[in-house]
Amino acid sequence: MGPPLPALLLLWLALLAALPASAQPARIKPAPGDDLRSVYANAADIADGKRVADSTCARCHGAQGVSGMRGVPHLAGQRAGYLHAQLRAYQQGTQKHSPMEGSARFLRDDALVNVAAYYASLEPPRAASGKARAAAPDPVQAGRSAAAACSGCHGENGVTGMPGTPSLAGLEPKSFAAAMAAYKSGERRHDLMKSLAASLDETSIGNLALYYALLKPERAKTPVAGDAAAGKAAAAACSGCHGEAGVSTIPGTPSLAGQDAQYLAAATQAYRGGARRDETMKAPAAALDERAIRDVAAFYAAQTPQPPNVRKPLSLGELASRCDRCHGANGNSVEPLIPALAAQRAEWLERTLEAYRKGERKSAAMAAMSALLSETDVKALAAHYSRQTARPVVYVLVPGGKP
Question: Cα(304)–Cα(261) distance, rounded to whole angstroms?
Fold first, then answer.
């Protein structure tokens, strides 16, 4: 919301209004192509915009621009420049939505300017009522709590000291989740792991995967049998998937560097014998004899592990603070061309964010921001902004400049 007008400015405006017309400065007239034409609208323009809006827009967007229709945004109090830009995009077909394209197609641009100015002049909608959604638990902390049951075998920090048991620190999350699903289904045979996996839902497994992925990986603290130098040559066939020196860059494919050698050997034997089924592993494992399996395992165990490219997810507060950089404090934009989000319908905000995520709406900035969001993030942000108090904003026009 714009700051209150200083007393001196209010006095100046009052004196200006008292001057005869000949003594007052001419009204600022924007150039025809000015993106901010709607900001310069006068009372007559707004009245014309109301007539057009009442006959064309109100049936969907509601009287006074407050929508009562699910999935249809409020327009009251929205920033005029943004509204005009959106209406032009629908008119020109660069933004797709059949009802809006049909409504805007036959209107002159002056009418679009005036409609945008009219809706911007209205009192903003009230914030959504009801209890705010409880903040989602920190997934990393939840994963840490769940990992307490795993530390006896896999180590306090996910680095194993038990031969035959894999380290989990720095494990790629999709690989971890796939392994847990295989234990849960019985595709991987291990009675203890099957019972542990069966007690976890998909969210819990995801939390565990994230927690372990963010831990610093180290070489397993276990003895190694085999010839690492001989294993290097035999491991050449594995580098295409598991990476040079056992550091994978493929999501879902585990890194092998620094892993427990006995576990690696047992896993390779299971692929070779069919106890573990994976078409990409079947042929490479079948090509190795027992000695070569031990040597390859020794080679990978000696390599230095590297953390995967995984970041801790941002909290709702952190995400909202990033949005507020452009959309204003609590979603109250002070930029004429950037929309206000405060008190907007939540389901419309969800749909719009999803459209940016999928590339259906075009904006380099929004594509970059929305790419970081999960479906849960989208819902949380939409609910957050729908509950913020919307503030009107006043732009002071300066002759020779812009608001």
Answer: 13
